[in-house]
Design brief:
The chain has helices spanning 2-18, 62-67, 77-86, 90-103, 106-112, 167-173, 284-287, 302-314, and strands at residues 27-28, 34-35, 49-57, 116-122, 125-131, 135-142, 147-154, 160-166, 183-194, 197-206, 228-234, 254-261, 269-279, 295-297. By secondary structure, the protein is α+β, with helices and mostly antiparallel strands. It has one domain (2-314). Strands 1, 2, 3, 4, 5, 6, 7, 8, 9, 10, 11, 12, 13 and 14 form a 14-stranded mixed sheet that branches. Helix 1 (2-18) crosses helix 8. This is Lipoprotein. Residues 33-42 have a biased composition (Polar residues). Residues 27-46 are annotated as: Disordered.
């Protein structure tokens, strides 16, 4: 049973770290944009350097709400989870159990989501630093040079690994069965000002609806068969930020918000959104990431790199 769950979690984290790449020529719905009702009334100038705070939530998920109460920086995550669970009322426990049975393997995606994330940007470079229940991660990307470096460390042990990759290898890491014709992509009339940056909304909907996962070989997201993506991107935001999101979507503008729906019939969604964009000078320390003595080249040792990442994330 333990091995079975390890495989399930491995498939889940693969989708979140290495993502999918829906790409297709967009059909413009209209050249007229309509503000979605944001309280911000003035657009800001292009963002080239500074700090971005990111919120990753699961609207409507009690399990996701519980995980949001965990603070990885305080350590002793299992104890934190135990205390939070003890505070649940019988009604909340019953609701969470029912949700778990209904969502099935979709719950794995929730478990593996980062709880805290910050992105540092300097021109065409971006560094994301994030914490999940089982791991701490750091990801640096240089969009101009098309190269990057990812560092992961277990929250529960001393295990750590550093993976290097080039632009081509990044796409290979993110490769799934998503093809250039897999999604119908439209640009909505709706726009939104996210912390003062004007974003255009695009909707990605699969042409062939993904079937509900029924085995470990069909864990939601691992095959790229996400039913629907709603993406808000701003031309004022550098494209480099797209490479450090948990889910990679190839857009020509910097993505500030993604709403993911894995299955058509499921209400479970994942919302990834910039909550604060602060222009300031970033330090070399903020842009830098930790490195282990040994750095694994993903292009030369794909299997070793993947196993190292899975082992850290799963606490193996």
């Amino acid at each position: 049973m333990k091995n079975t769950f390890s495989i399930l979690f491995a498939f889940s984290i693969a989708s979140l770290l290495f993502s999918c790449q829906p790409k297709q020529t967009k059909d413009k719905a209209s050249d007229t944009a309509v503000d979605s009702g944001s309280s911000v009334t003035a657009e800001k100038s292009d963002f080239k350097e500074g700090e971005i705070q990111v919120s990753i939530t699961t609207p409507g998920s009690k399990l996701g709400e519980m995980f949001q109460k965990v603070d990885p920086s305080k350590g002793k995550i299992q104890e934190q989870m135990k205390k939070i669970a003890q505070q649940l009322s019988p009604a909340e426990r019953a609701e969470m159990e029912a949700e778990g049975q209904k969502n099935g393997m979709l719950n794995l995606a929730v478990v593996m989501l980062p709880l805290r994330s910050v992105i540092y940007v300097k021109d065409d470079q971006a560094t994301a630093k994030f914490d999940a229940l089982t791991y701490h991660g750091e990801n640096y990307v240089n969009d101009r040079k098309k190269e990057g470096l990812m560092y992961l460390k277990s929250q529960n042990s001393a295990k750590e690994a550093t993976i290097s990759y080039t632009g081509d290898n990044l796409k290979k890491m993110a490769s799934t069965d998503v093809s250039s014709t897999a999604y119908n992509i439209t640009t909505s009339k709706e726009t939104e000002l996210i912390d003062g940056y004007l974003c255009t909304k695009s909707v990605y909907t699969r042409k062939d609806e993904p079937k509900k996962a029924e085995s470990i070989n069909a864990v939601p997201g691992t095959s790229g068969k996400i039913y629907k993506l709603e993406v808000w991107a701003s031309k004022q935001m550098p494209v480099a930020v797209n490479f450090v999101h948990p889910l990679y979507v190839e857009e020509k503008a910097g993505i500030m918000k993604i709403l993911i729906q894995y299955e058509k019939e499921s209400k479970l969604k994942v919302l990834y959104q910039f909550t604060s964009v602060k222009k300031r000078t970033v330090t070399p320390a903020e842009m830098a990431i930790h490195k282990t003595p040994k750095i694994i080249d993903f292009g030369k040792a794909e299997l070793e790199a993947s196993m190292q990442l899975f082992g850290i994330v799963l606490g193996m």
